[in-house]
Specification:
Blueprint: H1 15-24, E1 44-53, E2 62-67, E3 74-79, E4 86-91, E5 96-103, E6 110-117, E7 124-130, E8 141-147, E9 157-160, E10 162-167, E11 175-180, E12 187-191, E13 200-205, E14 215-216, E15 218-223, E16 232-237, E17 243-248, E18 252-256, H2 263-267, E19 272-274, E20 284-287, E21 294-297, E22 304-311
Parallel strand pairs: 5-9, 10-14
Antiparallel strand pairs: 1-22, 2-3, 3-4, 4-5, 6-7, 7-8, 8-10, 11-12, 12-13, 13-15, 16-17, 17-18, 18-19, 20-21, 21-22
Length: 313
């Protein structure tokens, strides 16, 4: 299969309207009737820029990405199902910066990674979501909490994980989006739908279970993509808690979040439509710390890394 290397922003409107949407941080054609898209209070963004590519080798199916809070200009990534429990560190340009095996974990179908406060001892932790279930037949799911490595580079090494067993209150679900609140540490999962008319479900876990105890997620509403492909494939909460990015195969959306809101409450409001790259099997998205820029990555050998530069709303 030929993997496209071009990044395009899907601006298909008349020039005057396109400029107005750019000023508001939104893009693209209008939403279907009855589906709201925010037109004010949106980040002000430029276009999509290719800033690098994944290193050749073991990252052919990038499924999740998140930026480091400890190491400047570093991203953590992992593959989709079929890989071992491991993750990689790269620079914002794609330069390799480390490989890490995860002990105490299995990798049935890792679909997303998020960063947030560690459950014990303080510091910054990574949370790998083993939440994929294309056939919707799994009895349980898991999050793996791994403290951010204190150093990057060098030979591959192992880091230990604390497992958090998860179950839904209403059966099995397929999901590719894991979100962690940067202050409270609450977990949010957004399911992946099969059909365009379906609404994705939102589930939250506000309190961590005791060590070794399974946790049942609580239903927290539903959500639909306002335009484009219906499947949510990844997301990230802004490091300052000011909003949430969700992506689909075709679009990127920003949901503003107030300081007193949960992630699910933020996702209940209308989003801003943001610039998005044309990526093959696009599933990974992450904020770049220190501002309002974000990166997206699709699947494929040496897949391009795209960055969008934005200013605060």
């Amino acid at each position: 299969m030929h993997w496209s290397r071009k990044a395009t922003v899907r601006w298909l409107l008349q020039p005057a309207l396109a400029l107005a949407l750019l000023a508001s941080g939104c893009r693209g054609a209008g939403p279907p009737a009855g589906v709201a898209v925010r037109t004010s209070g949106c980040p002000r963004c430029g276009g999509v820029a290719r800033v690098g590519a994944l290193p050749k080798g073991d990252l052919a199916e990038c499924s999740g990405v998140v930026a480091s809070a400890v190491h400047a200009d570093a991203l953590y990534l992992h593959n989709d199902s079929g890989d071992a429990p491991r993750f990689f560190a790269i620079g914002l340009d794609g330069a390799p910066r480390g490989e890490f095996g995860v002990t105490g974990a299995t990798a049935v179908d890792w679909e997303d990674v998020a960063r947030g406060p560690c459950g014990a001892g303080g510091g910054s932790c990574l949370f790998f979501g083993d939440i994929g279930d294309n056939d919707r037949e799994r009895d349980g799911y898991a999050l793996y909490e791994v403290r951010e490595p204190d150093a990057l580079g060098g030979a591959p090494r192992a880091l230990s994980a604390e497992a958090i067993s998860l179950a839904y209150p209403d059966g099995s679900h397929n999901a590719e989006t894991l979100l962690v609140h940067p202050v409270t540490g609450a977990f949010t999962v957004v399911t992946k739908v099969k059909k365009k008319k379906e609404s994705a479900r939102i589930y939250e876990l506000s309190t961590r279970p005791a060590a070794g105890r399974p946790a049942t997620l609580a239903g927290a509403g539903s959500i639909k993509a306002p335009v484009g492909k219906p499947q949510f494939t990844g997301g990230d909460v802004h490091p300052d808690g000011a909003g949430v990015l969700l992506r689909t195969y075709s679009h990127v959306f920003f949901y503003p979040m107030a300081p007193d809101q949960t992630v699910a409450q933020a996702l209940a409001g209308p989003p801003c439509e943001m610039p998005a790259a044309d990526e093959d099997q696009g599933e990974a998205i992450a904020w770049v710390p220190g501002g309002w820029d974000y990166v997206t990555i699709g699947e494929g050998d040496e897949a391009p890394i795209h960055r969008v530069s934005c200013q605060a709303p």
